[in-house]
Amino acid sequence: PLSVHCRAVYRPVTYRGSFRCPEDSTMERIWHHSAYTLRLTLLEGFVLDGIKRDRLPWMGDLLVALLANAYSFADRDVIAWTLTALGRAGIATEHVNGFLDYTLLWIISQDLYQLYFDDRPFLRRGW
To answer: Is pLDDT above 70 for 2?
Structure first.
């Protein structure tokens, strides 16, 4: 007989936000599935894209994840660690993830991070 084993890996987070739409339960299911999918990308302290593929932090995905995380989990650490990793990968000498527009998104994400998490010490440490 064939035996298959699976190990679930995820970041323990608390759902701090919710979405209610009494007129349309489909919208509520979409929100729950989306929040759960976001939770699956919060691995090893970072927001990782392609949980079934490359498992790397990508700036374009982080911007969306930052906004969704702020309302779903309010987990500032995972956002801060990912912003730090992407910035320290060489932003002074090359563009984030090799894309000029991702470097701009990194700067915009710093502003959004402050808007949602008000973490001035993080901003000072990064510079």
So the answer is: yes
Of 7 and 108, the one with more pLDDT: 108
* Sequence-ordered list of residues with C-beta below 8 angstroms from that of 77, at least 6 positions apart, any chain: 45
Q: Cα–chain-centroid distance for residue 103?
A: 16
Nearest CA among 60, 79, 61 for reference residue 69 = 79
Report whether 98 contacts 104 (CB < 8 A).
Answer: no
Check residue 48 and give its pLDDT.
Answer: 87
Upper half-sphere CA count for residue 12 (Cβ side, 13 Å): 0
Give the span between the Cα atoms of 68 and 35, in whole angstroms.
Answer: 8
pLDDT in tens, 18-55: 989 999 999 999 999 999 989 988 888 899 876 566 67
CA separation for the pair 24, 65 (Å, rounded): 24
**Cβ neighbourhood burial of 86 (10 Å; 0-12, 13-18, 19+):** buried
